[in-house]
Amino acid sequence: MPEGEHPTTPNLLRPVMPELDSIRGIAILLVVFYHGLYINLNETRLPHSALIVFKLFWIGRLGVSLFFVLSGFLITGILVDSSGRPDYYSRFYARRAFRILPAYFITIVILVVFGIAPWKFIGMSLLYLSNLTPLFGIPIAYSVLWSLAVEEHFYFLWPIVVRNLKPLQVTKCCVIILALSPLSRLLSFYLTTQDRLTAFRCNEYTWNSLDGLACGALFAIWLRSHNPSRKILQRAVLILFISATAIEVIGLPWGILTRQSPFGAAFQVVPWHLLFVTILGSFLLLATSNWKGLVSLKFLRFFGEISYGLYLYHMLAYAAVDYLAKRASISWTDTVSSYLTRFVVGASLAIGFAYFSRRTVENYFLGLKQRLTRA
User: Fold this and answer.
1) Whole-model pTM?
2) What is the pLDDT of residue 1?
3) Where are the alpha helices (DSSP H) in the chain?
4) Any idea where the domains of the chain sit in the sequence?
């Protein structure tokens, strides 16, 4: 997702943190594999053994949660570090706009030109309300936009919170969000249980998607407020990992693996958020050690660099491949080889377009961002 800038705490937090690009790379690959290999499985044609393997890519759905944790961490760090600037708001929003809007508008134009989404959905998406369209009887016509809406709502509100509250008060806000989010999802589950589509989409409403952002924000504030030693951070990472594992294991009999149960709807993502903070902390530790090469792999950083565009475009690429296959009377889902071919062709098309978008349009506006908001 959109990139962070310049945290200032020495050692663990540095002006340039390539390991965070690696985390972005992991997150976007999870999402691309999820939509390419898990969604639209033909369970009547593919062998049972293949279905078992492909269904493991369900975990890729959690790539969005990883993006949320990382975004909460980075954006909160940026806001805390710049909270005393007179141009606090104008600088932040200008930099976000230069980073986010170009690729977003390219996506909107594609949706309009090819008639992929109705005008009602387009209009609400231009207002960053695409995740709330089911409330108005409008289907989410291009599903990846829901998380961008959540991020934008976070960008609109969180700077006000960080600017006007002390770090301890911001911490309390994060804790309250973490406590209320499962309750909000549980309430939504019962309110929408008669409508399966709405029941699924309610997970994408902003108020049901805030705890990942809050986890990342809480971690950013803790690192800046306490400046922990490496040993303390290692202990914190271990505690978080044990807690995540315990919640997952305890929740198994209660249906934590599926959002079709009340407990799963409320708590399924909770242990994963803790795990993703664990990963973030581990990457910071490794990146500032002799093992930094493990968290700064070139291919992960490459995907991290193009992750925003790839996230926006990849489902368009899969849709294009499906459309061309249909016109040619080709079925991509009858055999394992054809299914994998669909994935490779679609993912390659998406990666190529995302790379082109980053190197041309996005980099042009990123250059403007640096020149116009350098001070």
Assistant:
1) 0.93
2) 47
3) 18-33, 48-55, 63-81, 88-113, 119-126, 145-164, 167-191, 196-201, 211-226, 230-251, 262-267, 270-287, 298-305, 307-327, 336-357, 363-372
4) 18-372
